[in-house]
Amino acid sequence: MKTIKLTTLILAAALVFGSTSCKYEEGPGLSLRTKTARVAGEWTIEKIIYADGTEDTDNDGTTYSFDKDGTGKISFTGGSIDFNWELVDSKEKIKIDIDGLGSTNETILRLTNKEMWVKDSDNVQTHFKSK
Predict the structure, then answer these.
(1) ∠37-41-47 over CA atoms, to 5°?
(2) Over the stretch 37-69, which tens digit does the pLDDT of each residue have?
(3) Residue 118: which of 62, 29, 45 has the closest Cα?
(4) Is the Cα torsion angle 28, 34, 39, 41 positive or negative in sign?
(5) pTM of the complete model
(6) Beta strands of 3-124 (E only): which ranges?
(7) Three-state SS for 16?
(8) Best CA proximity match to 81, nearest among 67, 99, 96, 94
(9) How far is C-alpha 44 from the geometric centre of its chain's CA atoms?
């Protein structure tokens, strides 16, 4: 009888944690915060990895602010640009719409409270870190 209860408990825990786990290539395996809550915040670029493997770590001080309501702002020396964002394709991609400049649809590779890695259609990875 105890074996059945223990098996049921393990199965229930797997279902609960399985439904909150992440699907991103680079993890994490589990997070208690929603994906939207993890995106929301201020970010700077830590590095960009180009398709040929070269890296750019020159941070120009640009800040990317994502608000939970789906709005955001890119702030840089001399100005800022507003944008709208949303998680799409089962929350595996982030879509960013910038008025007058179009939109991007980037695959999320890693999403934690402190890191967000995305890859565009040209296989260029951008690694953000929380500010």
Answers:
(1) 110
(2) 999 999 999 999 999 999 999 878 899 999 999
(3) 45
(4) negative
(5) 0.77
(6) 41-49, 55-56, 63-66, 71-76, 79-88, 93-98, 102-111, 115-119
(7) helix
(8) 99
(9) 13
100 phi and psi, to 5 degrees? 85, -15
Q: How many helices (H) and strands (E) does the chain have?
A: 2, 9
**Identity at 124, one-letter amino acid code:** V
Residue given tokens 């074996």 in the structure block: 3
CA-atom Rg of the chain in angstroms: 18
Which residue has tokens 């400049």? 101
Q: Which helix (H) or strand (E) holds 129?
A: strand 125-130
Residue with tokens 């995106």: 39
Contact 66, 40 (CB under 8 A): yes
Please, how many CA atoms are within 13 Å of residue 40, restricted to the half-sphere of its CB?
Answer: 10
